[in-house]
Task: inverse folding
């Protein structure tokens, strides 16, 4: 499995990560034929999933996503209202998502399919006092909202992604992870 601790040392690095999410949303939209759904293995969708995972997991405090009773899930269930069934699905995935990282990956995928990822980002951002380290990207209301707005742009996309029988603890695939890491590195260099 890919290590779950991704180190973002400053909010400037968080800005690079959020900018990468914004640009990847644009890239995904730019390569989709009108009305075509996104299926498993779509490279641009995989990159977006990986970047959103990084955004959500970076700087999390211990046990934030560790169990269905953890504070993140309780806040998400409340904030998402009728879309909260996605959280029940993530919790029910059991051994396919047994680690906090796997659960976050499952949440990202299920929320893409359910068209509720921006709402999930906003709900998680509301937890910052207890959930994230002060220098985490999600600890910045501006960065969290910028990421949510970027994800608002993909709400009309039909994500037809598998959410059952997926080894979420093993995702993202190494090639996507390396490519996303390289993209983040290039964007950091562009900023300087």
Result:
């Amino acid at each position: 499995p890919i290590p779950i601790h991704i180190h973002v040392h400053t909010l400037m690095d968080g800005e690079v990560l959020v900018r990468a999410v914004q640009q990847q949303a644009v890239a995904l939209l730019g390569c989709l034929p009108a009305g075509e759904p996104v299926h498993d293995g779509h490279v641009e969708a995989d990159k977006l999933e990986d970047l959103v995972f990084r955004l959500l997991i970076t700087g999390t405090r211990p046990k934030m996503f560790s169990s269905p009773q953890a504070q993140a899930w309780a806040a998400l269930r409340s904030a998402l209202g009728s879309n909260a069934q996605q959280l029940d699905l993530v919790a029910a995935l059991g051994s396919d998502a047994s680690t906090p990282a796997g659960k976050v990956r499952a949440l990202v995928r299920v929320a893409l399919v359910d068209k509720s990822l921006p709402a999930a980002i906003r709900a998680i951002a509301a937890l910052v006092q207890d959930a994230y380290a002060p220098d985490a990207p999600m600890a910045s209301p501006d960065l969290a909202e910028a990421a949510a707005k970027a994800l608002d742009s993909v709400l009309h996309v039909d994500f037809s992604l598998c959410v059952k029988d997926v080894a979420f603890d093993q995702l993202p695939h190494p090639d996507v992870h390396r490519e996303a890491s390289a993209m983040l590195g290039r964007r950091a260099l562009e900023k300087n």
About this structure: Strands lie at 38-39, 159-160. The chain has a mean pLDDT of 74. The CA atoms of residues 83 and 116 lie 7 Å apart.
